[in-house]
Amino acid sequence: MSENIQLIKVSMDYQDSFMDGLKECEKESSEQAWIYVHEKDLALPKESFSSYIETLLDYEFTAPEFFVRGITYWAIMGNEVVGRLGLRLELNEELEKLGGHIGYIVRPSFRGQGIASKMLALALETDYAKDIGKLLLTCDLNNEASERTILKNGGVFYDIVELESRANKKRFWIKL
User: What CA dihedral angle connects 16, 20, 21 and 24, to 10 degrees?
Assistant: First the structure.
């Protein structure tokens, strides 16, 4: 099933499906990961979806002080947004510890279908990822599903970062 997935840059064309995914994520308190903007902009998709899309598209060229430049992709299967992937074009000190170059989330109703692995594989095929060349990926110490996704896509374990205010992170490198 996951073979039918494509990654696209965010688009107004999928507003209804994205918002359905947001409702699912709100139920499990993962809406910030789904929306993928700073906390001050979390209401943006509900207030002005077009402004939300514009904000995400602008991140490729200009990052606000609290973020880095990056590209947000949606994983599309049929006409549904089934996942979100952020490819960060650069890292700051915080992302070197707990975020890495790529972060992703699969919509709750589509989990367990290999979608995260396919999203990551597609992201690694982009020119953006190839230009970076060596990508850092992280996952929570106990997130076995995310670890399997990273390893399946060529991730090599690097270390564990101990954090005071968050779950400890495992770090992996993928060299393209």
Answer: 170
